[in-house]
Amino acid sequence: MGRYLRRATLSLATLCGLPLMALAQSAYQDIPDLAGVWQRSFPGDSSLVAEPPMTAWGQERFDLARPIHGPRTTSATEANSAELTCLPMGFPATYYRPRPFEIVQLPDRALMLFEVDHFWRVIHMDGRDFPEVPLHTWNGYSIGHYEGDTLVIETRHMLGWQAEHIQRWIDRLGHPFSDEVTVIERIRRVDHETLVSEVTIDDPIAYEEPFTGTLTFRLRDFELAEFICQELMLSQLPEMRPGQEE
After folding, report:
1. Per-residue exposure over 86-113, b if at least 16 CB sit within 10 Å of its own CB, e if not
2. What's the rounded Cα separation, in Å, for the pair 6 and 192?
3. How far is Cα 120 from Cα 6, in angstroms, rounded to an integer?
4. What CA–CA distance (Å, rounded) separates 198 from 166?
């Protein structure tokens, strides 16, 4: 119902010649409130799907993965996850880091501010389409819209699996993704303390068919802290210094 009310408001405002900012503010007043600092709930599996339907390409790269979590746990000095070289993990893998993120909602975009690596993610909400000439980046290009109480985000053009020693996965268990991956997130607030995201992975190079899983986040009553990845990797703990001599 709210979606239709917003459309009616926008149409009427357009006929009356209201300024563009007034149109944006009018629609903005009716969006679902997802703002706050959130962190993933960690009990349960560490993957969206226990056994995603991998292609031969995906299986080959999965076999090369040396994760520091899950049933194939490897020491950090032997692991080959991108996160251990201070490189971005992409999505949805970034959510698996035990660090919070903040959602900020604006009339024409939504922002996700991550404690990990202090990077931000822009979800464009102004009706644009994806660039005609894709420029692949570490975290891809995200476009979103609201459907009732749900924020729908589509992300394309992420840099995929790089090499055996720099691997990017959809989780922390080693499941790979390619440059052709499309990630769709449907995020809604089920109660004041809980955010649920239904995530669909569509990657014809790595997986035989699209698959969907769910991530749950809890509201946190604190601010984002400083995070310097290089300091963490150069700490006195040998297990946090992959590839270095003790």
Report:
1. ebbbbbbbbbbbebbbbbebebeebebe
2. 23
3. 28
4. 27
Q: Where are the alpha helices (DSSP H) in the chain?
A: 2-16, 20-28, 56-64, 229-233
d(CA 125, CA 132): 18
Cα–Cα dist 62/42, whole Å = 23
**CA angle at 156 for the pair 153 and 161, rounded to the nearest 5°:** 125
For residue 102, give the H/E element and its range: strand 101-105
Residue 83, SS3 per DSSP: helix
Q: Which two tokens stand for residue 126?
A: 């102004």
Ramachandran assignment for 157, one of left (phi > 0), alpha (psi -120 to 50 degrees), beta (any other): left
How far is residue 147's CA from residue 111's CA, in Å, rounded to a whole number? 18
Per-residue pLDDT, averaged over 55-82, amounts to 89
Segment of 89-98, 141-150, 154-163 carrying the highest mean pLDDT: 141-150
DSSP track, 20-54: HHHHHHHHHTTS----EEEEE--SS-SSSSSS--B
Identify the residue with better confidence: 59 or 49.
59
pLDDT digits (tens, 9 = 90+) for 84-116: 888 888 899 999 888 999 999 999 999 999 998
* 40-215-113 Cα angle (round to 5): 50
The DSSP secondary-structure symbol of 96 reads: G
